[in-house]
Amino acid sequence: MIITEADITNLDKLTSLALRLWPENDKDDLRVEFEALIESNKDKVYLMVIEDVFVAFLHISLRNDYVEGSNTSPVGYVEGIFVSEEYRGNGIPKRLVGAGEQWAKSMGCKQIASDVEIHNHGSQEFHKKVGFKEVGKIVAFIKNIDL
């Protein structure tokens, strides 16, 4: 198992993994988005490689705005994490989150945070297993105000 930073040479592999996490996205749009992220100073994307197969990724960012439950700034924020189904259950996410923590520390963070959709109980359990503690639940609303 090797953790490597995403770059232009593995952008297509990253995009393919990301499409499995966010299948409602357009592949070309997602590729453009991740290309910008890997060039950003406020984002880091790590990939897990096993025997030359890209099996997982983590996207972590720096957030300077208020993050629910935090008391410091900036905060490292897990924007997305995905492990291919056939590689789950062997500690890959914990290792990826650890790499993200190290990067966040190097950027001056004292905390990392994440969010999960309220119905995604599997992801909630994963977060607890890797050391996150729940700090609240929210229900988001929107209202169109057409002019």
Describe this structure in words.
The protein has helices at 11-21, 27-39, 92-106, 121-129; strands spanning 2-5, 43-50, 53-63, 75-83, 112-114. With 147 residues, the chain is α+β, with helices and mostly antiparallel strands. It has one domain (2-129): 3-Layer(aba) Sandwich (Aminopeptidase), CATH 3.40.630. The protein has a 5-stranded mixed sheet, with helices on both faces. The chain is globular and about 50 Å long. 24% of the residues are buried. The mean pLDDT is 93.
Q: Could you outline the blueprint of secondary structure elements for this entry?
A:
Elements: E1 2-5, H1 11-21, H2 27-39, E2 43-50, E3 53-63, E4 75-83, H3 92-106, E5 112-114, H4 121-129
Parallel strand pairs: 4-5
Antiparallel strand pairs: 1-2, 2-3, 3-4
Question: What descriptors fit this protein?
Answer:
Aminopeptidase, 147 residues, 5-stranded mixed sheet, globular, 24% strand, alpha+beta
Order of helices and strands: EHHEEEHEH
Gyration radius (Cα, Å) is: 16 Å
Give a short account of the largest sheet.
Answer: 5 strands, mixed
Strand arrangement across the biggest beta sheet: 1-2-3-4-5
The whole-number mean of residue pLDDT values reads 93
| Architecture per CATH nomenclature, i.e. the level-2 architecture | 3-Layer(aba) Sandwich
Total beta strands: 5
Shape: globular
User: CATH superfamily name?
Assistant: Gcn5-related N-acetyltransferase (GNAT)
Number of helical elements: 4
End-to-end separation in angstroms reads 54 Å
Detail the poorly predicted runs: none
Portion in helices: 25-40%
**Strand composition percent:** 15-25%
Backbone structural class = alpha+beta
Name of the top-level CATH class: Alpha Beta
Number of domains: 1
